[in-house]
Write a structure and sequence with these properties.
Layout: E1 2-10, H1 14-21, E2 34-39, E3 44-51, E4 54-66, E5 70-75, E6 80-89, E7 95-104, H2 108-115, H3 118-136, E8 148-150, E9 153-155
Antiparallel strand pairs: 1-7, 2-3, 3-4, 4-5, 4-8, 5-6, 6-7, 8-9
Length: 157
């Protein structure tokens, strides 16, 4: 099992940063290798990726979502992956975004990528592109979802 933890400081308030992160279908704008994310319902996402020429698709479930604080997820089948992203106030109006992800794979390509720290560098790059994406928007997220999720069940606000 591999674990990645990366943080970045975004020059935007927590609410704005969180609101933008909830726009999962915009992830291809800043996540390298993510071709498409489709939000099937309040807690289920279908991912289509192409990383190193390897195409994959899988569904993931949001297991916890606490507005302006955290979003946790787990892959449903096909991928052994889970994670959490947290949002904390930083100096001034900035936000510290921390992404923790665990994954495991028996595929030899994934083992080589893990050994070469490819995933680690990819996550770091994705966070940097997210920072640029949100800072360039000057306070206007592409949307927001303010509901709560606990144990995989949504409670819209």
């Amino acid at each position: 099992m591999s674990v990645i933890e990366k943080s970045i400081e975004v020059d935007a308030p927590v609410r704005l940063t969180y609101d933008q992160w909830t726009q999962f279908e915009d992830f291809p704008e800043f996540m390298d290798g993510v071709e498409r994310v489709e939000q099937l319902d309040d807690t289920t996402l279908r991912w289509e990726t192409s990383i190193g020429g390897v195409k994959r698709s899988f569904d993931a479930r949001i297991t916890q979502q606490d507005p302006d604080r955290r979003i946790a997820w787990e892959a449903l089948e096909g991928e052994d992956q889970s994670g959490v992203v947290t949002f904390e106030p930083a100096e001034g109006l900035a936000t510290r975004v921390t992404l923790e992800m665990t994954y495991d794979s028996d595929r030899w390509t994934d083992k080589v990528a893990d050994f070469l720290n490819v995933v680690d560098k990819k996550v770091e790059g994705d966070l940097e592109r997210f920072k640029n994406f949100i800072e360039e928007r000057h306070g206007a997220p592409t949307g927001a979802w303010r509901g709560r999720v606990e144990g995989g069940s949504a409670d819209q606000q």
